[in-house]
Amino acid sequence: MRVAFLGLGRMGALLAGHVRDAGHDVTVWNRHRRELDGARVADSVGEAVDGAEVVVTMLFDPDSVRAVAGELLEHAADGAVWVDVTTVGPAASRELGERAVAAGVRFVDAPVLGSTPLAEPGELTTVVGGADEDVERVRPLLGTWCADGKVVHVGPVGSGSAMKLVVNQSLGAVAAGLGEALGLADHLDLPRDAVLDVLSAGAYGWTLGQKRPMLESGDFSAATFSLSGLAKDLGLVVDAAGDHPVPLTREVRARTQDAVDEGHGDEDYAVVIARIAAGRD
């Protein structure tokens, strides 16, 4: 299959590598030119997309996808499938899907659950929105970066993006709760090692299994999911919620954005756990 892959950040490069390793004919493009062994490198979006059967976008936010959408759709072949893996929210996915259909291109939203530790071995989960026939057409491609059985068709276009926001809302909520629990434990003069051991056996176990070394060392530089990414996603959650009350998410989003504004955006999102534990606003 001829595949154009747009976006070679930390996650994009890993996903594109899995597509290449599965034997597909891959052309890549990145806003700042980057290469991928075994793939052609295009100098423009149009050059990358020309002749592709499937176009994958793995960018940062809705505006970054909109920025390439015009050129992508201008050059995409009739009947090609555009798979957007970017976390953009359901409204943006539906908007992009409508633009794609008007240009004769099929559209699937397929954000991934998990970060680089799962992306490297190809053990992610992908939540997918789109028409049945379009999802089945690209399922083998999505499977190149997923664990067996972890390509989950949720519903029509926008459903995958909606599910991704529900998942990342819980990520932010758990981070804030864990930070508050650690801060309370410090206030009660409990030894941090014992607290981490006990909390690891409960509701915070998954997060501590991933983030305990960072919390113990205080070094959040080796980001697997950046704080700026979490702040962006929580903003999308608030936008998607509209009039539906999400007071906890609004508070956590404010805390994460404050930390981004103070220069922590490129650090792992676990830095917000430490900040809340330390009583920092």
TrEMBL record:
GO terms for molecular function: NAD binding; NADP binding; oxidoreductase activity. InterPro entries: 6-PGluconate_DH-like_C_sf, 6PGD_dom2, 6PGDH_NADP-bd, HIBADH-like_NADP-bd, HIBADH-related, HIBADH-related_NP60_sf, NAD(P)-bd_dom_sf. The keyword Endoplasmic reticulum does not apply. Pfam families: NAD_binding_11 (PF14833), NAD_binding_2 (PF03446). It comes from the Bacteria. Coiled coil: none annotated. Residues 158-273 form the 3-hydroxyisobutyrate dehydrogenase-like NAD-binding domain. The active site is at residue 164. The keyword NAD applies. Residues 2-154 form the 6-phosphogluconate dehydrogenase NADP-binding domain. Keywords: NAD, Oxidoreductase. PANTHER family: CYTOKINE-LIKE NUCLEAR FACTOR N-PAC, OXIDOREDUCTASE GLYR1-RELATED. Belongs to the HIBADH-related family. This is 3-hydroxyisobutyrate dehydrogenase. It comes from Lapillicoccus jejuensis.
